[in-house]
Amino acid sequence: MATAKTKSTPTANASSSTTLHGLSPYVEKKNEEYMNENQRKHFKQILQAWRRELMEEVDRTVNHMKDEAANFPDPADRATQEEEFSLELRTRDRERKLIKKIDKTLIRVEEDDYGFWPGKLLPRLGP
C-alpha cells in the first residue's frame, strides 16, 4: 500500500517542515488570494506526484506477482501465496479508485471548478 512519505528538512528559520510527496509545503504570502495561480500549480504538483507514486506501486506489484508466482506442491503454501496476492490486489484496487479521484480533481482544478469552505476545498454545487 502506498503511503505518503514525509521527511523533515531544515528551513531558512532553522525550524523543520514536512514534505509531501517530495514537495515542500506552500508558503503563503501576505494578503495572497486563496487558490491563486501559484497555489493551484503547487496543489497540482502534489496531486501529480501522489498519482505517480501510486502508479509506481502498481508496477512494483505486477513485477512482484510475476517474480513470486510459483506452483507450490504443498496446499498450505499455495493458499498462503494466494492470500498474499489477494491482499495486494485489493490494495491496488483501492489505489486504482484513488487514482481516478486524483485525475478528476486535476481536471477540476485545471477548469477552476472548485469552491472552498474555510480550510477545505469542495466541489461546486449547481451551475
Summarize the structure.
The protein has 127 residues and is mostly helical.
Describe the model.
The protein has a two-stranded antiparallel sheet. Strands 3-4 form a two-stranded antiparallel sheet. It has helices at 37-68, 75-110, and strands spanning 8-10, 16-18, 115-117, 120-122. The model is unreliable at 1-16 (pLDDT under 50). β3 and β4 (120-122) form a beta hairpin. It is 54% helix and 9% strand. It has a domain at 35-63 and 74-110: Four Helix Bundle (Hemerythrin (Met), subunit A) (Up-down Bundle), CATH 1.20.120.910. The two termini are 38 Å apart. The longest helix has 36 residues, at 75-110. With 127 residues, the protein is mainly alpha-helical. It contains 2 helices and 4 strands, in the order ββααββ.
Strand order of the largest sheet: 1-2
- Total beta-strand segments: 4
Strand content of the residues, in percent? Answer: 5-15%
CATH structural class of the domain at 35-63 and 74-110:
Mainly Alpha
What structural class should be given to the helix and strand makeup? mainly alpha
Mean pLDDT: 79
| Count of DSSP-assigned helices | 2
* Largest sheet composition: 2 strands, antiparallel
Overall geometry = elongated
CATH superfamily of the domain at 35-63 and 74-110: DksA, coiled-coil domain
- CATH architectural category of the domain at 35-63 and 74-110: Up-down Bundle
Radius of gyration: 20 Å
Helix content: 40-55%
CATH topology of the domain at 35-63 and 74-110: Four Helix Bundle (Hemerythrin (Met), subunit A)
SSE string, helices as H and strands as E? EEHHEE
Q: End-to-end span in angstroms? A: 38 Å
Uncertain segments are 1-16
